[in-house]
Design goal:
single chain, 411 residues, alpha+beta, four-stranded antiparallel beta sheet, 10 helices, rod-shaped
Length: 411
C-alpha cells in the first residue's frame, strides 16, 4: 500500500512539474511579476482616483471678520461677522467632468490590457528560441556521434589499405567544426535565459524547461479576422478617449456658464446700554445668493476648442492604428503560411536526403567511391534539420503575434 501511495505521489508531482512548464504558466508569472505591467495597472488605479476629484462640489468657503471699530446699528453695535458660502457649477458640469474622467480611466484599463497582451507576446517570442537552441544542440550532438562513427570507419579502411588518410582528416575537420558549434550553442543559452527570466522579473539563473516539441496545427482561413478590430485594446482605448473628449467638450461648454453661490452671513451684535428696546442686541442672520459672471469668454472658448481638437486627434489615431493593425495581420498571416510550407518542405527534404545518404554510404563502404559526397549529404541533412527547427520557432512566433494582434485571452 505504501509503495502504491509513493508511486501515485510521484505521478502527481511529474504531472504538476510538466504543467508548471507550459507557456501559459509563464504568462501567469509574467502578469503577476513584471514591473512594467504593474506600472500600467498603477496608471489605471491613479486615473480612477481622478473621478471623485472632478465630480465633487468645490469646498465651501468659511470666513470670519471682527469689527475693530464696531459699526453702530439701531439694535446695537456689530462686533463680528461669520460667512459660509458654497458655489455650484452650472447644471450638468460635474457630471460631464466625471464622465470624462471615468472614460479616461477605462481607457487606461484598456492600455493595461494592451500592455499585458504585448507582454504575453514578448514572453512567447523569448520562450521559443529556447526550444530552437535545445533542438540545435541535440542535432549537433547527434551529428558529432555520426561523425565519430565515420571517423572510426574511415580509420579502419585506411589501416586496411582500402581508404585514404584524406578521408580521415576530412571527418576530423568536420568534427572540429561541430564541437565548436556546440560550444557556441552552450554559450548562447545564458543570454536567452536571462532575457526570458527578466520578462518574468526572476533571477536570470532560474531554470526554464524548454519544450521537447512544438505543435503546428493548421490555422483556419482568416483566423480571428472577424474580431480583429472589435477586440483590440488599443482600438477600444481610442474609442473611450474619443468619448472622454466629447464629455470634456460638454464640460468645457458648461464651465462657460455662470456659477451659482449660496451662503449665509451671521453677524454678532452687542446690546445697547443707553436705551431699552425690543430686539436689543439681537444677532443678524442673512441668507446670500451670488452669481459668477463669465465675462472673459476667450478662456472658455479656447478650452472647448482644445477638447474638440483632442477628439479629432484620437479619431485620426484610431483610423491610422486600424490601418496598421490590418496590414500587420495580413503580413503575419502570410508569415504563418510561409513557415508552414517550409516545414513541409524540410520534412520532405530530410526524409529524401536520408535515403540518398544511405545509398552514398553503402556505395562508399562497398566500392570506396567519393567520401566527399557522404560528408556533403550529411551536412546537408544537418542544415535541413536546423532550418526546420528555426521554421518551427518562426511559425510559433507568428502564431503568437496573431494572438497578440487579435487580443486572444488566456485563462
Amino acid at each position: 500500500m505504501k509503495i502504491l501511495i509513493n508511486i501515485t505521489v510521484l505521478l502527481v508531482l511529474a504531472f504538476t512539474a510538466n504543467y508548471a512548464q507550459t507557456l501559459e504558466y509563464y504568462f501567469k508569472i509574467a502578469a503577476e511579476n513584471n514591473p512594467g505591467l504593474q506600472a500600467k495597472y498603477k496608471d489605471f488605479e491613479a486615473a480612477m482616483q481622478r473621478v471623485p476629484q472632478v465630480s465633487t462640489l468645490p469646498d465651501p468657503t468659511l470666513s470670519f471678520g471682527y469689527f475693530i471699530s464696531p459699526a453702530e446699528t439701531r439694535v446695537g453695535p456689530q462686533r463680528a461677522r461669520v460667512s459660509l458660502t458654497q458655489m455650484f457649477p452650472w447644471f450638468g458640469t460635474l457630471k460631464a467632468q466625471g464622465d470624462a474622467a471615468s472614460l479616461m480611466a477605462e481607457a487606461k484599463h484598456q492600455s493595461f490590457l494592451e500592455a499585458r497582451n504585448r507582454l504575453y507576446y514578448q514572453v512567447a517570442t523569448a520562450y521559443y528560441p529556447l526550444f530552437e537552441l535545445k533542438t540545435w544542440k541535440t542535432i549537433e550532438q547527434e551529428n558529432i556521434k555520426i561523425l565519430q562513427s565515420y571517423k572510426s570507419f574511415t580509420s579502419s579502411r585506411f589501416k586496411s589499405g582500402t581508404g585514404t588518410m584524406a578521408d580521415v582528416l576530412r571527418v576530423e575537420i568536420m568534427l572540429n567544426d561541430a564541437s565548436t558549434s556546440l560550444t557556441i550553442l552552450d554559450q548562447k543559452e545564458k543570454p536567452l535565459l536571462t532575457a526570458f527570466n527578466k520578462l518574468l522579473n526572476r533571477h536570470e539563473t532560474e531554470t526554464v524547461m524548454a519544450p521537447e516539441s512544438l505543435t503546428s496545427d493548421d490555422l483556419p482561413d482568416h483566423f480571428r479576422e472577424d474580431i480583429l478590430l472589435d477586440s483590440n485594446p488599443v482600438i477600444k482605448e481610442l474609442d473611450l478617449k474619443i468619448k472622454s473628449s466629447e464629455a470634456s467638450v460638454l464640460a468645457a461648454q458648461r464651465q462657460g456658464f455662470p456659477k451659482l453661490g449660496v451662503g449665509l452671513d451671521y453677524v454678532v451684535v452687542g446690546e445697547r446700554t443707553d436705551v431699552a428696546m425690543s430686539d436689543n442686541g439681537k444677532d443678524v442672520i442673512m441668507p446670500m445668493l451670488s452669481v459668477s459672471i463669465p465675462v472673459f469668454r476667450r478662456r472658455y472658448q479656447a478650452s472647448v476648442k482644445e477638447s474638440q481638437f483632442i477628439r479629432e486627434s484620437y479619431s485620426l489615431q484610431k483610423e491610422d492604428y486600424a490601418n496598421s493593425l490590418t496590414a500587420s495581420y495580413e503580413t503575419t498571416l502570410f508569415e504563418v503560411q510561409q513557415q508552414k510550407e517550409l516545414l513541409l518542405l524540410y520534412d520532405r527534404q530530410i526524409k529524401e536526403s536520408g535515403q540518398v545518404l544511405d545509398l552514398l554510404f553503402r556505395a562508399y563502404a562497398n566500392a570506396g567511391v567519393s567520401f566527399d559526397e557522404v560528408l556533403r549529404m550529411q551536412q546537408q541533412i544537418l542544415r535541413y534539420k536546423k532550418m526546420r527547427a528555426t521554421a518551427e520557432v518562426q511559425y510559433q512566433s507568428a502564431i503568437a503575434r496573431l494572438n497578440y494582434l487579435t487580443a486572444k485571452t488566456y485563462q
